[in-house]
Every structure is written in C-alpha cells, then in structure tokens.
Amino acid sequence: MTLPTLRTRCTLSTLLLLALALPFAALAQPASLGDDDVASLRRHLETEWQRVLDGRERVARAEHAVRDSRQRKYPRGEKRVELYDELEAAREDLAALEAQWPDKVEQARQAGLPAGVLQEFEDRL
Questions:
Q1: Torsional sign, CA 101, 102, 103, 109
Q2: How crowded is residue 80: how many other Cβ atoms within 10 Å of its Cβ?
Q3: Could you list the residue range(s) of the whole structural domain that residue 10 is in?
Q4: How many domains does the chain have?
Q5: CB within 8 Å of 96: residues ≥ 6 apart
Q6: Cα(5)–Cα(1) distance, integer angstroms
Q7: Single pTM value for the model
Q8: For 60-87, what is each residue's pLDDT tens digit?
C-alpha cells in the first residue's frame, strides 16, 4: 500500500465517520427556546426553589417549637408528641425537596435552558 492510497483511505474513513456523527450530534442538541419559554422555565425553577426555602423555614419553626417546649416543659402529653411528629415530618419533606432539586435543574437543562440562566440555580443547595 502506497502512502497516497493510505492517506486517501484515512481521509475517506474520517469523512465517513463525520458524516455518520453529524446527524446524531444534531439530535443531542436541545431545540433553542424562545424568550417566553426561558422565562417560563425560570419561573418554574424559582417556584421549586421557593418550596425548598419554605421547607427549610418549616423545619426551623418546628425545631424552635420543640426547643421552646423543652425549656418551658410545656406542653406535655399528646401536644408534645405532636410537636415532635411535626419536626420529623418537616425534616422528611425537606429532605425530599432537596433531593429533587438537582433533578429539577437537570430537567431544565435538558429542556434547553441556557447555561447562563442555569448557573444561578445550580449551586443553591
């Protein structure tokens, strides 16, 4: 095999690989979004983040109520059990919301939200 023949085969195989890869690369790129779509996805992420913040606030209120009941030794009985149950439920809900947050950001990325917009949401946890 001569050098020109080898170059031709390498060039042809490279071109063939590129020709096969281009349609798949186009499929992997998300469709570009309009301004309304970007704003809608951004509002959705803001709403989901607000749910996480509300969950954190709920946990803080429940922890305060439990701490307050320990110091005052009141309430007792069933009311005190309800305070602990609320704290446990608030912590579980918050853990679920925080676990879902990266998935929400990834869904927005896959929907085509621009990287500049995503950047402000990625590191919030």
A1: positive
A2: 16
A3: 3-26+34-122
A4: 1
A5: none
A6: 6
A7: 0.72
A8: 999 999 999 999 999 999 999 999 999 9
End-to-end CA gap in the chain: 60
Would you call 107 exposed, middle or buried from its count of C-beta atoms within 10 A (0-12, 13-18, 19+)? middle
Per-residue tokens: 102: 């990266």
State the alpha helices, DSSP H only, in 33-77. 35-72
For residues 13 and 37, give the distance between their C-alpha atoms in angstroms, rounded to a whole number: 41
Q: Residue 62 burial by CB count (10 A; 0-12/13-18/19+): exposed, middle or buried?
A: buried
Q: CA separation (Å) from 8 to 11, 20, 78, 125?
A: 5, 18, 85, 54
Which residues, other chains included, contact 65 with Cβ-Cβ below 8 Å and sequence gap of 6+? 83, 86, 87
Which range among 1-10, 63-72, 89-98 shows the weakest confidence by mean pLDDT? Answer: 1-10
- Which residue in the block uniquely carries the two structure tokens 């929907």? 111
**Residue 93 and residue 15: Cα distance in Å, rounded?**
54
Q: Do 121 and 108 contact (CB within 8 A), yes or no?
A: yes
Q: For position 54, which CATH number holds?
A: 1.20.120
Helices 78-110 and 35-72, packing angle to 10 deg: 160
